[in-house]
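Continuing the series of single-chain predictions for the mutant panel. This is the parent chain; the variants come on the following pages.
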Amino acid sequence: MRHRALTWGGVIRAVVFFGVLTAFPFAVTAHWIVNMAVFTLIYAGLASAWNLVGGLAGYPSLGHAAFFGVGAYAEAIYFQHRDVGANGLLPFFALPVIGIGVAVLGLAVGWIAMRTRSDVFAIVTITLLFVAQTLAFNLTSLTGGSQGIGLPGAPFDPDTYERPFYLVLLLLLAVSMAVTWAALHSRIGLSLRAVAADEERARGVGVHVRGVKLLAFAVSVGIAAMIGAVWAYYMTFVYPQFAVDPLITIGMVLMAYLGGRGTLWGPVIGALIVVPAQQYLAYQYGATQLYLVAYAAIFLLIMLLMPRGILPTIVERLRRRAAAAARPDGAGRPVASAPKEVVS
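Parent structure:
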């Protein structure tokens, strides 16, 4: 497997992408559009974080919504009766503490869950999700149970209320993608891909299998928890059925698969497609949950047309076309695919 180092093309893509997204809330003033962008960034960050475990390591976690909920409740419980500051930024400064705390929790959970593999791991993690949701409903003295728990509203300018949340979420997305890029271009990334391909063989050639799996899982759930904390502050109220919702996990997994799991830009592309479409359907059809039908349709289309996802499929086709054009005897003969490399 051949890895590409930092290139000018990659730097330019990142600068343009994050430059455009940074300028977006300053150029667009319609609240409903910026609100849609906020939720798009939430899921882009979640899908990118999930990709560290489900994409690179090949461990399809279905319990990430539990850690998203833990982050949301940690933020809500701490600031329930505390001042958020005159400028409203104190809850954002708490994010690193929440992320590190949940990452440590993730190490403990992963140490047990990652003794299983593949389908069994998926079952264990989704069981964890329902356990977390049950605890959120029943620990009423801590979480408020089904009545929920509230946070003080942010004292931001009503005309630009969404902007601080948007920018913090954009920063978390940048962190998640930077971690993914570093993993893809390091020994850790090679180790994770070796684990995904054949865990026993990876262990046989000296890969510290348990260590790299736990590291990926801890970082992944830590980022998911920080995003959950921002979501809680944005919504100002946390209910168990929304904070620990299986549909959150389904959404991030769908977006990673749609764009191309195991790649840098794939999960982000998936989020940029799915979330605006889901939000549009919600605005058009209200609470009919028609977007669930769309989720099922997208999964079906991916499995039938692009089982590897949008980005890997496009890159592979372009590579084959370039290889065919480079043949001195024309492009009439079948051309074997070029050696695979990390898509970034």
